[in-house]
Design a protein that fits this description.
CATH topology: Pnp Oxidase, Chain A
Distance between the termini: 17 Å
Number of strands: 9
Shape: elongated
Structural class: alpha+beta
Number of domains: 1
Low-confidence stretches: 1-8, 10-28
CATH class: Mainly Beta
């Protein structure tokens, strides 16, 4: 479906976190939506739609609504995935931070593309975003680094992420050494091997559970400067 639309008014309350309804066709822990996810309630762009759904997730009682599974591909073509936290989202895309020498950092340096999945099981919803990944500059990364607790700033220095270490004691000794190197109130510099990434989406799929496995799947696909919305079979 190729359509041009204006943003509708924010969805009514029925489009918020869905209540569960009994069903014998799905496991009891699966949440079913009482409403259909239809094209006429979607925003004209995926990031606005994502903001609406993220607000629903954050208003619910679910733990860590900003947690996303980030999938990358190694230089040798091996798929790898891990959970990271989304730290910002806007019209540009999805922002997260990491040690750049980690496996994900090495993957993104070799193949700067990724897929992020937000598995909001408690709401019967899921968002999947695929696209290219840009490295954020040190200047763009530092404000978030400064907002982190002091211990987390030291932790960015202490961890040689994804590398094999002898024991937890080795990690704790390194942390203690760093605490002596930068005692309060000394400012802890941001490591040059740590920073932000921006996932620039090319497609964003919004999935909502339905009865009898007839789930709703609406995908935004970038089409030049606009977005095309496509319904996918469940």
């Amino acid at each position: 479906m190729d359509t041009t639309r204006r943003d509708p008014d924010p969805p009514p309350a029925a489009q918020g976190p869905s209540e569960t309804v009994p069903s014998e066709t799905v496991p009891s822990e699966t949440v079913l939506s009482e409403t259909v996810l239809s094209e006429d309630v979607l925003a004209s762009d995926p990031m606005t739609q994502f903001a609406w759904w993220m607000a629903d997730a954050q208003a619910s009682a679910m733990p860590q609504p900003t947690a996303m599974v980030l999938a990358t591909t190694s230089a040798d073509g091996y798929p790898r995935a891990r959970t990271v936290l989304l730290k910002a989202h806007d019209q540009a895309g999805f922002t997260f931070y990491s040690n750049r020498t980690s496996r994900k950092g090495q993957d993104l340096a070799a193949r700067p593309r990724a897929c992020a999945v937000f598995p909001w099981y408690a709401l019967g919803r899921q968002v999947t975003a695929e696209g290219s990944v840009r490295v954020l500059s040190q200047a763009s990364s530092e404000p978030y680094y400064r907002s982190r607790p002091r211990g987390s700033q030291l932790g960015a220095w202490a961890s040689r992420q994804s590398q094999v270490i002898g024991s937890r004691a080795d990690l704790e000794r390194r942390m203690a050494s760093l605490e002596q190197r930068w005692p309060p109130p000394a400012q802890i510099p941001m490591p040059d091997f740590w920073g932000g990434y921006l996932l620039v989406p090319e497609t964003v799929e919004f999935w909502q559970s339905g009865p009898d496995r007839l789930h709703d799947r609406l995908r935004y696909r970038r089409d030049g400067a606009a977005w095309t919305v496509e319904r996918l079979s469940p």
